[in-house]
Amino acid sequence: MNTLIFKPLAKNITFDSDTMWVELFDGRKLGVPFQYFPKLLKATPEQRENYIISGGGIGLHWEDIDEDISVEGLLLGIGDRTQNVKKILA
Question: Are 19 and 34 in contact (CB under 8 A)?
Fold first, then answer.
């Protein structure tokens, strides 16, 4: 069962030194530490800024680092499932 009533759609992305900030069309702003996504953590600032908001706002894509993130997944607290995050945080 999906508990999200409205499909969350990204409007814009900004970054600070350790966090990706995703602004949604409904006015919310979600902060996600780079540590949840190792490819973003290791990326240069220029690579992070080279993103595409895809599917009308449902996805985030970085061609340079081969990273795709679901906006709905971010709201559900889902990080990168291809890496062992405990190893990266250690």
Answer: yes
- Number of neighbouring beta carbons within 10 Å of residue 40: 23
Q: For the chain, what is the total number of helices (H) and then of strands (E)? A: 4, 6
For residue 38, what are the domain limits? 10-89
**How many domains are contained in the chain?**
1
Residues whose CB is less than 8 angstroms from the CB of residue 45 and which lie 6 or more positions away in sequence, other chains included: 15
Distance CA(20)–CA(13), nearest Å, equals: 7
CATH code for the domain of 65: 3.30.2020.40
Q: What is the pLDDT of residue 4?
A: 53
pTM (predicted TM-score): 0.82
